[in-house]
Amino acid sequence: MMVDANHEIFMQNVQGPAWDLSSEYAAPDAPTVEADLDAVTALLDEIEALNVGLTAADPVPTAQAIYKLSVSARELLANLSTYASCRLSVDSRDDAAQHLVGRLTNFEKRSSELLEPLAQFTDLATDDVVDRYLEDPEVAPTSFLVSHSRKRRDEILSLNEENLLSSLSQDGIHAWGTLYDQLSGTIQCELLVGNELKSVGVAEAAGLTMVPDDAQRERAFRAINAAWTEHEEACAAAVNAIAGWRLEVCRKRSGSRDVHFLDAPTHMSRIERGTLDTLLEVAAKARPLAQRAASLQARAYGKAGFGPWDQRAPAPTLDGSSDISIPFDEAIDIIANAYGDVDPSMGEFVRMMVANEWVEGTVGPNKRPGAYCTGFAKSRTPRVYMTYQGGASDVITLAHELGHAYHAWVMRDLPISQQSYGMSLGETASTFGEALVRDAMLKRATTPAEQLDILWEEISALVGFVLNIPTRFEFERNFYEKRAERPLRPDELREMMSDAWRTWYGESLAEPDPMFWANKLHFYISGISFYNFPYLFGYLFSMGVYAERNTADSFFERYQALLRDTGRMTAEELARSHLAVELTDEAFWLRTVNSMAPRVDAFEALLDDLAL
Within a 13 Å sphere around the CA of 291, how many CA atoms are in the beta-carbon half? Predict the structure, then answer.
């Protein structure tokens, strides 16, 4: 019991604060929630009444009116959805929040159906009609979204078919994603923590894969996989259903040309297939450097190979040094000072996030795993979620999510249609923030242990983005190709996942993670497929932007301008406009990769000096 008491005191001193959601709603059943739902109903009723006008001789005025109503309806629905999701992230057993999610499903279904006619109008109308539609000052900011959507106009089904697809998706593909979310929040792991056998949630167990004790990390890893193995049939059913749904939709949309399963994710990320191909080719060329980095990490722990449980491992603890734990308040100081070196306003933003209680960093048994940044549409304020436990990797994760939050903050005054961006560009500010904080932590390091701690984080980023992300992509691509023939059994998924690990990690790998297909949330996100390659894009792209920091005049102003344009340009257009580079040219990407080689050399030299 004394161990538990000491651990609890330690976590109270180190863990992050709880966020405050009351500025949006007091509770899931608060009167303000009901008021917003009533308002949504009224807006949707108006849209339903207006939709008939889209078949009139001149549908433009009606389309403009529907769009204005849709902005308000979507804002309210997004706000309510974010609130419910935030509550469930902290407590997956929050019955009131689950009830609200269930109610919102019908509203979202109706909204999708009623707004499909407007989507078809903007996609299928002639160019001159669309030009008149965009003449309205309130509608004009949607110009980029309209033109980007029209690129896939040949995939559109009939209005009745699109409405049916949207309606069925709530209890179809999205229901499978919800099932996985509920599983991940309730599954318990049995594992040895120190000398005590404990039952913990998967998020808490995942936190134990970030401790210096190699044996403890491996025990946590195996306990997590054992827990997921008990549910592998449910996971296989879910991932097969999600992929099968998407493949069938691709088949249905292949009327005038074959629609590939990568068309939607690249379009959503606002990059061209050619850019993705170039990105993966560069990753393959960078693989030897990243494999060398992974082998060096294994060497630092006195092992022959890199284990899956080493993905989020901290630097090994040196003889004579204590385990380095960084309290949350100290982490905020580090991040705020690093951000402030670019411009004082960036550091002030970090402190404002904490002062306003917009960051969730507590440790809890029913918390969902992972970290993310979200935002409330009505107040246009961001929120950051994670489980902060004091490791250097936690500091980097916090810096990453605060980068997302800063991105949203600098765009908050833009029209709502220009605040959304492709996920590839969405990783720009977050990975940029990581680089800032890693460099700042390295500069403040005064001991070999601190230097190792920070260089370790840099090397971990290289291994994670250049090896682990392509591993995920390789598995998902191969899975979709096989799933087009039939559903796959758990043993097949395990083997396919293991093959992807071996392909990318090569001889640096101690053993693959055969259950990664089940324990990785990203494969079960029903709204987005291939939630992987944008991270590689964002890492290399942001490092390219970071390289401009000390060479470009007026960098901060240019950086803000780049972030603000992410909602109204494709990635290729943004790169041409702000960096004067072509993303289908390997040269830009290879410059970034090559800049990492000296960092790997420095890491190896430090290991030599430390005789590790």
Answer: 18
